[in-house]
Amino acid sequence: MAPGREARFRALAVEVTPVVGAYLRRRLYPLVEADLDDLVEEVLVVAWRRLDDVPADASIPWMIGVARNVLRNAQRKHRRVVAVEDRVRPSGPTAPAEDLVVADEGIRQALAALSDDDREILLLHAWDGRSAAEIAAIFHLTPNAAAVRLSRAESRFRRFFTQVEVE
Amino acid sequence: MDPIDERLAASDPAAQGYTHPQFEAMVSRVVATRPATRDAAWRSFRMKVAAAVTATSVLTGAGIAALSTVGVSLPVLSLAAGAHGANTPSAATGTKFAGTMMRLELNWQFTGADNFSTSPGSATVYTMTGPGDPASTLSDAASVLGVDVGTPTSSDSGQSYSSTGANYTGSVVTNGGFASWSIYSSAPSSGTSSSSTSSTSTMSSDAFDATALADAHQLGTFDLGAPQGTDESGNGAGPFDVTVPILVGGRATDFAYDFSFTSDGTLQSADGVSFSLASLGDYPLISPSAGVGQIDSQLYITTAFAGGGIEPMLGSSVAPTTTPGGPTTPTTAVNGSAPPVATPTDTTPPDTSVTSPVDSTTTTLPPTVVNLTDETTQYGAYSMTDGSTLLLPVYVYDGDVVGQGWQATFRVIPVDPSYLDLSTVTRPGIF
């Protein structure tokens, strides 16, 4: 294997592994902490296979985009397994991961009131520290569109949060 | 950082970060696997794109030269990719199946072009410029709305401002071509649908619409469309949301003012934009009928549009699904009129589909036929490679997805291809 390619990948892995790991940990439910390292490795396998496609100036958004897909595949697989195991009893919709991991009741309720899209965009900014431009890359939006979506998500979150706090 | 932001940040379940316990071993395992190689189909595709770009360049030069002879010279519009810098003229997505890599090529087929005009036209293209003083934009909006948001301050060198007043909080974000502002009530509200003290509004829906329209007129100098109001509760208890579309040249745009009122008429939140327009010139357009032929080649670009009221992108990916014993079929949402099964969380298909035993296989899905029934011409905001933001004409097509039972909307920038440079917009990451 070309040393240059491997060195490039190692540098990328050093840069993105903490970010990808934290991203996945925030959204892991219903998977468990023991699954986390395997998911990170799966993301890096994709990066290694497609190293030439990783944009030099937007590697983290690109990797988060991969991580989203890897995580959702894993969550689907988990749900299918659970569904088989629980076939004898009906199951309701799966709660957002934030419902299970956020201790702050007001924040949790306000997040739960958001649409999936708004919640993901808001938390990519608030928790993962991604800029509007990076969110644009993750969702294949234009930077302008991402900024508007983020602004609206924040506005809606604040509105829900205010309502929750009043109650 | 205001208290809400602080609490949200403090709720981060991964605030401690992440460190892989055996990082070096993991990297060694990863690099021991075989990296993907470009397949012949991909190389062929890239060559076709390169040829198309070359042809476009030739046409561009010829087009400008020809128009220059009659005294008209229009700059070529070079659309920028997103920060990811990825797209191609062909909509496509892919997925990962059981450890193998397989690219799925979408196979859209559009019918109904005969329903639309075959007459080419022209439309003005505008350069969008955001306000020079975003803080003032926010303060002015608060003043128009009669609320106190305090004095805006910036913590990021002026890219955004926020402030909190006695009962309202405001923020404004600059986006190059425009500024997007938001104001919301931070005071206890009574009259919301989720409040135990909610009550039926004494105001009519027309009164909310009129209030919103009057405010919108004062917030900017734009032409405005008819207000569109909804009662979130559905039972008269509110909140009452009103959207006032921003028009340009009498046409709908991606932008709007949005208001939310409690049942007693108190402003709960407002969102809007601020920008000015300068004509870049009148550009020739292909006909709406001919535009149908451009949908597939612009699919990714035109669904990634900017502005208010946007809903399409997060639901726009294609999720192939598997029918046991049958072929894979795509289920796609291209705008807010999402199909029942293609939600944003469904953008990656399950890994029980037909798999390829070999890396880099390209699979073309069975055709998804869309019968287009309606077309309207609107304006959408797009980023250019030089960093500018332009307001471009767009054809918006509505149609029925044959056999799927749902509708979809597609957009095309109908500017004569001689004046469109899409070469910098490259393929999004797929796997």
Structure description:
- The complex is a heterodimer of chains A (167) and B (431).
- Chain A is built from eight helices and no strands.
- Chain A has 167 residues and is an all-alpha fold.
- In chain A, helix 2 packs across helix 3 and helix 3 packs across helix 7.
- Chain A is globular.
- The relative contact order of chain A is 0.11.
- In chain B, a hairpin with a 5-residue loop joins strand 12 and strand 13 (267-274).
- In chain B, 20% of the residues lie in helices and 33% in strands.
- Chain B contains seven helices and 21 strands.
- Chain B is of the alpha+beta class and 431 residues long.
- Chain B has helices spanning 3-10, 23-31, 40-68, 134-145, 205-219, 288-291, 295-303; strands spanning 77-78, 92-97, 100-105, 108-111, 121-129, 160-164, 168-174, 179-185, 223-224, 228-231, 240-248, 251-261, 267-274, 276-285, 318-322, 328-332, 361-364, 368-383, 389-401, 406-412, 420-421.
- The model of chain B is unreliable at 36-71, 82-105, 189-198, 303-360 and 426-431 (pLDDT under 50).
- The longest helix of chain B is centred in the first third of the chain and has 29 residues, at 40-68.
- Classes of the chains: A mainly alpha (167), B alpha+beta (431).
- At the A-B interface, helix 1, helix 2, helix 3, helix 5 and helix 6 of A face helix 1, helix 2, strand 7, strand 8 and strand 13 of B.
Count of individual helical segments of chain B: 7
Task: Report the strand count of chain A.
Answer: 0
Identify the quaternary structure here. Answer: heterodimer
The run of helices and strands of chain A is HHHHHHHH
| Number of extended strands of chain B | 21
Tell me the span between the first and last alpha carbons of chain A: 61 Å
Largest sheet of chain A, in brief, is: none
- Indicate the mean pLDDT of chain B: 69
Structure characteristics:
heterodimer; A: mainly alpha; 75% helix; B: 431 residues; alpha+beta; eight-stranded antiparallel sheet; 7 helices
